[in-house]
Design a protein that fits this description.
There is one protein chain. The chain is α+β, with helices and mostly antiparallel strands. The chain is built from three helices and four strands. Strands 1-4-2-3 form a four-stranded mixed sheet, with helices on one face.
Length: 105
């Protein structure tokens, strides 16, 4: 119900402004510590923080960039954690060969 109401409000705002301005929705969870965020999610696309940059700074930069482009649409922006998995040095088969060599089942 809340989503439908939000969509209706967004459509009214777009019709008032002619749809030329971007509508930016910022999502914040006040129960979470901002220290753990390592990037910003914008419409489902993750952007990691640069070295020494906080997620709050990246969020502000992202919003400024959206406004500067003046592209019509709805942009949902939120700080988030993204698990970054480094490239494994060994494939699963290589690991099994090294650690299970000579062991019988």
């Amino acid at each position: 119900m809340a989503t439908g109401n939000l969509r209706a409000r967004i459509e009214r705002l777009e019709s008032k402004t002619g749809g030329a301005e971007p509508l930016i929705v910022r999502l914040h969870r006040h129960s979470e510590s901002p220290d753990g965020f390592n990037g910003v999610m914008t419409n489902g696309t993750f952007t990691p923080c640069a070295e020494g940059q906080t997620a709050a700074e990246l969020e502000e930069w992202t919003i400024a960039d959206i406004k500067r482009r003046r592209q019509a649409g709805v942009f949902v922006v939120k700080q988030t954690r993204q698990l970054v998995i480094a490239q494994a040095e060994l494939s699963v088969n290589e690991w099994a060969q090294r650690h299970c060599a000579g062991k019988s089942e």
